[in-house]
Design brief:
Elements (H helix, E strand, L loop, with lengths): L1 H19 L5 E14 L4 E14 L4 E7 L4 E2 L2 H8 L11 E8 L11 E13 L2 E14 L2 E11 L10 H6 L3 E12 L1
Antiparallel strand pairs: 1-2, 1-9, 2-3, 2-4, 3-5, 5-6, 6-7, 7-8, 8-9
């Protein structure tokens, strides 16, 4: 009988302790891939960045992306030179872009259960020192504790101070480009 009482007490203590252990809250992605695609009748341009970082707080829904702008890689070296130049994104003076926002439908996402969940994110995106409110959709996938997020959306370059009135960039670069992001998150 003493063993049953002792075992019950140990079990109850373990349940109490586990009950107070906080689940993973803040997740970090250092495996974030961001790409952009511009399509015009003259040419298509794609660039990839594998050096972006992101955090995701599963309790508050806060999402942050920090993107080193000089880390975008292009197929052609001349494209990369123009992209980084003062007439385009001026990455020397504006080395990072940033997004700070929240998942607005957090209650519909179960980070502890395998599945794919629709995510609605609202926040502020800053590129080249210009900040705009954005609201986009994406998805969060949970597979055996590994959490990934992805989204595809469009931005208008002029909203971030990137405007071409004449010359080759005006005809070769789309006014609105498609952004795709994929991040895989781990506990901090």
């Amino acid at each position: 009988m003493k063993n049953v009482i002792a075992s019950t007490m140990v079990f109850m203590m373990m349940v109490s302790i586990v009950g107070f252990v906080s689940p993973r809250e803040k997740l970090v992605s250092q495996k974030t891939h961001i790409s952009f695609f511009s399509s015009t009748p003259i040419e298509d341009i794609t660039a990839n960045n594998y050096k972006a970082n992101s955090t995701l707080d599963t309790q508050s829904g806060e999402v942050i992306f920090s993107v080193p702008m000089q880390s975008f890689e292009f197929e052609k070296a001349l494209m990369q030179k123009h992209y980084n130049g003062a007439d385009f994104l001026d990455t020397k003076n504006f080395p990072r872009s940033k997004f700070v926002g929240k998942i607005t439908n957090l209650s519909e996402i179960d980070f502890s259960k395998n599945g794919t969940y629709k995510a609605v994110v609202e926040g502020e995106m800053t590129i080249k020192d210009k900040t705009n409110r954005v609201k986009e959709q994406g998805k969060i996938t949970v597979i055996d504790g590994v959490i990934s997020a992805e989204s595809t959306f469009k931005i208008t370059l002029a909203d971030y101070g990137v405007v071409f009135e004449k010359g080759k960039p005006a005809s070769n670069i789309a006014k609105t480009i498609e952004i795709r992001l994929v991040g895989e998150y781990e506990a901090e």
